[in-house]
Amino acid sequence: MAKNDPYAALRIKEFNVFLLLRFVLVFGWSMQFVVIEWEVYSLTKDPLSLGVIGLMEIIPAFSMALFAGHIVDQREKRNLLAIIIAAFSLISFGLFLLTWPVIVSNWSTKTILYSIYALVFFGGFLRSFFGPTIFSLIALIVPKKLYANAATWSSSTWQMASVLGPAFAGFCIGWIGVHWSLCIIFGLVVLSLMILSRIKKKPILNPKLGEPVIQSLKEGVQFVFKTKAILGAISLDMVAVLFGGAVALLPIYAQDILKVGSEGFGILRASPAVGAFLTMLITAYLPISKNAGLKLLGAIFGFGICIIVFGVSSIFWISVMALFFSGVTDGVSMVIRQTILQIKTPDHMRGRVASVNSMFVGSSNELGAFESGLTAKLMGTVNAVVFGGVMTLITVATTGIISPSFRKLDLRKDIEEHEKD
Fold first, then answer.
1. How high is the pLDDT of residue 2?
2. Residue 90 CA: distances (Å) to CA of 10, 38, 115, 185
3. Which portions of the chain are predicted below pLDDT 70?
4. Considering just the CA atoms, what is the radius of gyration of the chain in Å?
5. Would you list the domain boundaries of the chain?
6. Residue of 405, 54, 37, 382 lying closest to 241 (CA atoms)
7. Alpha-carbon gap, residue 303 to 158, rounded angstroms
8. pLDDT reported for residue 118
9. pLDDT given at position 363
10. Distances (CA, A) of 151 to 15, 81, 236, 411
11. Any residues with CB less than 8 A from the CB of 127 and at least 6 apart, and which?
12. How far apart are CA 165 and CA 93, in angstroms?
C-alpha cells in the first residue's frame, strides 16, 4: 500500500497532529522573521542591518549545532520540543513588548535595535535544537517504510506555512501594524505548545546513553562525511542558500526598487514558498527518487537562474514569477535532500546528523542573509543578488563535473529496502 499511496503517512493520526504542530509553529516563525526584517529596515534604512539579523542568529545556531545534536539523541524528543517552544514564546513576547508604543516613545532607536538583535540571538540558540528534534520526532511517529512519503508531506507543510506566514505578515503590517502582528505571533506559539500535548512521549532509541560528548560528536561528523550522498546533498543546498539569499534583501526591493509597500513585500516574500509548496504536492504523487542526484543538480542550477532574473528585474510581476520559480526548484531540492537524510540516517544518530545538516544548510540561511546584506552594502543591491545567482551556477557546474558518483545517485533501491522492513 505505502509504495503507491501518496497519502500513506497521512493515515497515521499522530503524524497529522505533528503536521498541524509544524504548520502553526513555522507559520508563526515565518511571520516573526518577516516582521522583524520590516521593522529593522524601517528603523535603520541600512541594508547591512538586514544582514546583521542573519548574523545574530547564525552565531549561536552554528556554534551550538553539534552539541544540540548530541543532546537530542540523548533525550526524549516530545518533552525536549516542549521546552524549545516554551522558550521561543518568551522571544515572541519580548518582541511584542519592544514594539509597545510606550517603549518606542521612551527608548532610543539604537536601544530597541540592539534589543531586537539580542532576542534574535537567543532564537538562534533555540533553533540549533529545533531542527534536530523535529527531524528525530518524525522517525518516531511513522514506520520506516513511510519515511520518504512522510518527508514529502512534512516538507510540504513547512512550505505551506512559509507561503502563508510571510504573506499574512506583510498584510498584517499594513492592517494592524508591527506591534499587534507580533501579538498574533505570540498567540500562535502558545497554540503550538497546546497542540504538542496531543503527541505521546517517544522512546529513546540511542543504545549509547551517557556516551561522552566528544566521542558522540565525532561519530556524528564522521558518519556525514563518510556518507557521500548526504554530504553532497547538504553541501549543494548550503551553497545555493548562501549565495542565493535574495530573500533577505526583499525589504529593499519592496520599499526602494519595486516600490510596492508592505502588501507587495508580503507577496514577494511568499512567492518562493508558493512555488515550493506546489512542487512538493506534485512529488507526493510523482516521486523523484529516480536519478535523484542529477535532478538535484538541475534544480539548484535552475534556482540560480531564477535569482539572477529576480535581481535584474524592476517589474513587479516579473520579480514575483522569478521568485515563484526559484521556489519550484527549491522544492525539488528540499524533497530530495530530506528523503536522502531520512533514508540514509540510522535512528540513533538522527539528532547529530540533523545538527550537521543545520550547520551546512540551516545556518547558511542566516549567513546568506549576512552575505547578501554585506555585498549589497559594498556593490549595491542588484549587483549583490546577481553575484549570488552566478556563484550558485558556478558551484553546481563544478560539482557536476568533479563528482560523477553524485550525478548517478539513485534512491529507488534504498526506498525499496525500507519498504521491506
1. 42
2. 32, 21, 13, 11
3. 1-4, 206-211, 244-245, 360-367, 369, 414-421
4. 20
5. 9-200+213-420
6. 54
7. 19
8. 94
9. 59
10. 11, 19, 19, 14
11. 57, 61, 358, 362
12. 18
